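tool_call predict_complex ligand=zinc ion
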Amino acid sequence: MEVKSNGFRCENCGNKTYGDKEICVKCGSENSIKPIPKVLYKCYLNGTFYGGGNLNYILELFKDYVVTCKMYGKKECDFKIVKD
Ligand SMILES: [Zn+2]
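tool_result ok
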């Protein structure tokens, strides 16, 4: 995953920082996190809600079902991704 130099926030106080190793100017915390993106996607499998999150999470759902579990032996599956 690409690491961007903005969009990070201090894990302790929520102050804006510029990377996950940036020391917060407000509270001195060394830990910053990238907040979960506001745009969420919903994944439906065979018409049933399967999971939701960012696109990387949707990709994980897809990979897990299709690649890792070989579609659980089914002949076909129907993945539908909806932008929230
Ligand atoms: Zn802070």
